[in-house]
Amino acid sequence: MIEPATTAQNPTVLGIETSCDETAAAVVTGDGEILANLVLSQLDEHRPYGGVVPEIAARSHLDHIDRLVEQAMAEAGLAFADLDGIAVTAGPGLIGGVFVGVMTAKAIALAWDRPFIAVNHLEGHALTARLGSDLTFPYLLLLVSGGHCQLLAVQGVGRYRRLGGTIDDAVGEAFDKTAKLLGLGYPGGPAVEAAAAKGDAAAFDLPRPMLGRPGLDFSFSGLKTAVRHAAEAAGLLDNASGNPSGDPAKKADLAAAFQQAVGDILAERCGKALDLFRERYGKPGPLVVAGGVAANSHLRDRLSGVARAARSELLAPPPALCTDNAAMIAWAGVERLRLGLTDPLDTAARPRWPLEELQGAAATAPRSAEAG
User: Fold this and answer.
1) Please, are residues 106 and 63 in contact by the beta-carbon 8 Å criterion?
2) Considering only CA atoms, which of 344, 353, 348, 284 is closest in space to residue 123?
3) What average pLDDT does range 148-165 have in this prediction?
4) What are phi and psi of 41, to 5 degrees?
5) 261 and 207 in contact (C-beta within 8 Å)?
6) Which of 49, 131, 143, 300 is the most exposed place for a label (fewest CB within 10 A)?
7) Dist. CA 333–CA 128, nearest whole Å
8) What digits encode the pLDDT tens for the residues 229-257?
9) What is the DSSP string of 115-127?
């Protein structure tokens, strides 16, 4: 076996991410230095369809992943022999794309006799705030993306307690559907945020589903329906075709009202979650927000205020590390490799993979003192 180049506590890991519509490769060290972080977006390929087409995504990953890995290694100034592990998103995600990444990572791990680390994409988001920081366990996480909306107590690597989640749609999906309904463009999240910056949130009265109810669950399906009804009433949809039409200023107002409603919902739920977190863990957070929706500056401002009110703080990765990227996968690989959590080469790609299923694997591994 080729000997690793660094110690177990400071490993250098190649990360690969192909779970949706970004092909990404990165190299990260155990001390949090990002040596390379390349992301190839597929926006132009999916824009004509208003969303991600799984077959197109998988083909694009297959066309570009080898070149991107080579470029990442060259930018890092390393050879494969210098790596201590190969980490890859093994799920959840679009299975065709996940399969491309997993097979690429397995081939590298086998060829260079390196540990293979199958990373849960959600754990990649969950641990990103620790990349290059001194954040310790436990902490409260709001994970918000196109497919997920969860409040989690992050107790350690592979140790997550779900406090609440969406009972229907994810908040990122609600942003995407609102953008498509109003004809704001793709991707939906940045398009809604840009339009909302020009609008008056008070111009439309939208509901705040689940607000004030017991528990920490979310619901966004009713809000999406309310946006459609408001758009129809305001003449923002063509009566014959149902396509977007009407006054751009009114569209901006409706986008602002929608974003304000989402902010109110997230703020109220996170405020309650911080109180519960303090009761259970004896500390007021911090509140960590991760996932693609965490790049929204309006929502960051709202959540920052919630954290301050709870005598805590909001921690969020830089926007470039909120959306899908391979640096977060490499970092999750670093964290797992330190605990001896590696995977066999027959590990399967998984379209669905709840974070709770990571508990058993981590339970048998050494636990750091900070994990509690």
Assistant:
1) no
2) 353
3) 95
4) -80, 150
5) yes
6) 49
7) 11
8) 999 999 999 877 778 888 999 999 999 99
9) -EEEEEHHHHHHH
